[in-house]
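Our preliminary data section would be incomplete without showing what the modeling component actually yields. Below, a chain of 358 amino acids is followed by its predicted structure, encoded as tokens that our downstream tools consume directly.
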Amino acid sequence: MSQALAHIGGSLARPAAPLPARRPRPRLSQRQKAAIIVRLLLKEGTQLSLEDLPESLQVDLTHEMGALRRIDKDTLREVVEEFTSEVNDLGMSFPGGLEDALTALDGAISSTSIRRVRQETGLVMTGDPWRMISGLSNQILADIIRQESTEIAAVVLSKLPVARSAEMLGQLPGDLARRITYAISTTSSIDPDTVRMIGLGIASQVADTNPRAFPEAPVDRLGAILNFSAAATRDDVLTGLDQADAGFAQEVRKAIFTFANIHDRIFARDIPKVTRAVDQTLLVTALAAAADAEADIASAEFMFTNMSQRLASQLREEIADLGKVKSKDGEEAMNAVVAAIRDMERAGELTLRTDDDD
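Predicted structure:
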């Protein structure tokens, strides 16, 4: 036993063989370090969004991740420590580029100033143009869709959120909506670069458009005013427009929606919604006034026919009890019904019929 211990002790006393020299670690580029950090974060389950990076950097990052093989623990620790140090030293980050700066300032400076910067620099869009297009108003989007080919319009609707696309489709004339929906079936082979170029073209078109003082077209503005004008005033204005510009007068008539238009512009299935949306006292007054007006009686009967028979009987009894309605009270009540219909149309709760729905 003692001899064995002595032997072990002697072995321990002998100098150990020298360790092999460690290979020097390769010097990593900044892009390789970035690839390591991204790979580490993805491995830990972090959800990263690198879409805002220029496409060239996204491609380079992908190549770097594909080229790396194994990284030793010491190298990984050094890369992480360097990355952490840079993050801790960062006091504030500014938008990357003029387009991001304009995005950050949206709402803080006037749209006129933003447009002037774009004109002076020639900058239209550097990021994803479809983000900007999705933020456009329905009126501007509808104008774009009407002006473009059906194929381009199909791409626009395909890139919008589904709910927004459905909303826009409902605002287009029936024949145009049908052509665009058919054109969507031909978009399956369009490559991403083409879709981006279409988006950039539309973004450029919007950027070059002079700002308008009034968001609505003149026809729509005048139609909205005449909607709530007294019938005598409305008829007098339209007669004058017929003499001054018959074409414009015809377009204004199409834009006007009054109580008299209910029977040919509202779907029968939507009448119960209308009766629920209007205060019953106002509804009774409007129907009573309509019964004495030749232009409105067809709409009143249309409403009676398409509401529940129980409600129709109840309203007829109240109308009989009400007696004669003052002209002013009748017009105010009918305007209230029209306003409720317009509110429901804007909310997407009903759609007004067009000539194509006949």
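Residues 327-346 form the longest helix (20 residues). The chain is about 65% helix and 0% strand. Preliminary results of this kind motivate Aim 1 of the renewal.
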